[in-house]
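Predict fold of HAD superfamily hydrolase (TIGR01450 family); 333 aa.
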Amino acid sequence: MSDDLLGRHDALLADLDGTLYRGPVAVPGAADAVRGATDRGVPTVYVTNNASRSPADVAAQLAGLGFPAREQDVRTSAQAGAAMLAELVPAGAAVLVVGTASLVDLVRERGLEPVTSGDDADAVIQGHSPDTGWRLLAEATVAVRGGAVWVATNVDLTLPTERGTMPGNGSMVGVVKVATGAEPRIAGKPAARLLTEAQAAVSSSRPLVVGDRLDTDIEGAVAAGAPSLLVMTGVSTARDLVRAAAVRRPTYVGADTSALTRPVDELTPGEKDGWTVRLDEGALVLTGNGADLDALRTLCPVAWGAAGDGEFDGPVRADGSAAADALARLGLA
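Predicted 3D structure, encoded as tokens:
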């Protein structure tokens, strides 16, 4: 077994937006990292909470960006949601689909009958679509209020786009929650189901979850009992990481997916060369000089230890100019 991170795992369960690509552009080095893993016999399952596109469309985009991706390598929250729904209602049940045509197809493939009226629905499945409007949300409200089974493919409040952060499926789910007082069953991350299905798809016993969001990717990994690598190329920031509650703390922290070929000890949160951290009346105090990411890895366990299972809410301070510069670059000043 190799001493690098990749050598400890037999599959990668990789998030997409913010981890492997940003909008239409691959994150620098990500395609090389995934191809390198494939060359070493470690497959990648592309695991996305985005329920708006079919696995075939996702695979085509990935392949166009240089990733070794086939349709069967993609697992979406829409697939997990349709599978969950089929376990909850009988064959032929009427399902109001709040989502795209690909979600309608997945529901139909599970032997269920898509409908357009909440009055007729035995169940509701809700996934992201940029075309979702008031009328369809109103129909979902009618169905859920009437006792229909309700499944959300995911509850991401926001969605990264080329024009900045936009409302995600969780924001639309929130509309129905407010109107009904009900809570949906959740198929995608941070629930474990999507990741455990991805793991089973490649018969993995030693998976590594790779992602950029603490509230979906990392929390999902914790729920699934899998180790995780947080990459700092997307949504979650250094401040988010230092303050993270126990359910959102990654096993490893890397700048990007090139971390897969770095030594495990380098990536594990803990004291690193050049840095020390002390707790002073509830504040983290960083001292020393070295790599910024090593400063972050050194800060984390001290903050987490002080917070227990909850979120660290104290200030972060510097002792010395080098530490002050590092905190500023990390967004922790």
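The radius of gyration is 21 Å.
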